[in-house]
Amino acid sequence: MQATVKWVDGVMFVGESGSGHAVVMDGPPDHGGRNIGMRPMEMILLGLGGCSSFDVIQILQKGRNEIVNCVTELTAERVDAVPSVFSKIHLHFIVSGKGLNPATVERAVKLSAEKYCSASIMLGKAGVDITHDFEVIEV
């Protein structure tokens, strides 16, 4: 995996992935930015959410569950020091589908957290307290 981060101006950067996609990262005005892109730490949080959501959907689909939607809401806390690393992250999965068994969704969330989600496991090994819960919506 490769990526490039290019400085544009002030504290704005463009990150380009090896797969050819780009994203703007910027800071708030009080740090020299223009607030026109995500913060780098927001990118980490979204990466965790995307990685874990990917796993949950894949696991449920492989089990032939009829999923209509999956939204993952993330909340995070950071330490009040430099570096301002994450101390806690909570993922709340809202999985919608037809005839979904809550125990099956719980298993998918647990497998992602403990076995498959590289981002979650990496952050957990770094000392971040990561918790998960879920809800199932019948459609």
Using the alpha-carbon principal axes, give the shape: elongated
Instruction: Let me know the CATH homologous superfamily of the largest domain.
Output: K homology (KH) domain
DSSP helix count? 3
Sheet of most strands: 3 strands, antiparallel
Strand content: 35-45%
Number of strands: 6
**Could you tell me the radius of gyration in angstroms?**
17 Å
Order of helices and strands: EEEHEEHHE
**Class based on secondary structure composition and strand pairing:** alpha+beta
By CATH, the architecture of the largest domain is named: 2-Layer Sandwich
Which residues form runs of ≥5 with pLDDT under 50? none
What CATH first level of the largest domain would be assigned? Alpha Beta
Q: What is the helical fraction, as a range of percent?
A: 25-40%
Distance between the termini: 38 Å
Topology-level CATH name of the largest domain:
GMP Synthetase, Chain A, domain 3
What's the mean pLDDT score? 97
Assembly state of the chains shown: single chain
Q: Which sequence of strands runs across the widest sheet?
A: 1-2-3
Q: Give the number of domains.
A: 2
